Model the fold of this input.
Amino acid sequence: MPTVAASLAHDLSLALRLADAADAETMARFDRADLAVRLKADRSHVTEADLASERAIRALLEQERPSDAIFGEEYGQTAQAARRWILDPIDGTANFLRGVPAWGTMIALEIDGSIVLGVVSMPALGRRWWAADGLGAWTDGGSEPQRIAVSGVETLGEASLSFQSIGQWRDAGHLDELLRLQDRVWRDRAYGDVWAYMLLAEGRLDIVGEFDVKEYDIAAAAAIVREAGGRFTSLEGSDQLDTLSAIATNGHLHTAVLEALAEAAE
Done:
């Protein structure tokens, strides 16, 4: 009987193939003047590349893992099962449709309610990251895959923060908390979308926070950040990913960040 690690290794191999399939669809359409775009009911954009990418992933999953459930941003949930693949075919669609290369496909596997695997592919930047429980977090940034880990920064005064966008924090009613946290850290920038989490997993950032996020927006990133040694919770400190908020840190800073945000809210 295969071990859990061996089973996850097979799933991870498949997830990387899923990312290859998605990359083929997205890169064929990236920066195209004739890209078809429409607004969804929530006023966010969806392009033909989002749809084609998710269809390609689903087709391969239906062939390779027909008994698994699938939950994707564009085509929703299919069935119920102990194993569920969570997909964001293009995280950063606004960047994609403007020709900005900071966007990526996110693929995660959830087993019995726990995220155990994540792949993030950013083909326009020529980068990919992946992780699975007990197998480490990795990137292909060099000639050979390199294991990655979060930073060792232990004080807010030395920390680098990515807050995604001022408007997002304002709309969530937490702008004052962000501004007070910003006053306590060394540096702040809005790198945006999934790339910020990957910079955190590599040890280049120390804190990332955002709001109005669905499971497919963060599941793969959470798997990679956690396996790289970081923490990924809601604003309230929950490990669940369906709370519409995300606070990720290198782990050393997590309690201090949550406390600072809670103090500012009082």
Remarks:
- The helical segments are 4-27, 48-64, 93-98, 166-171, 175-184, 193-201, 215-227, 254-265.
- The chain has two domains: 4-136, 156-265.
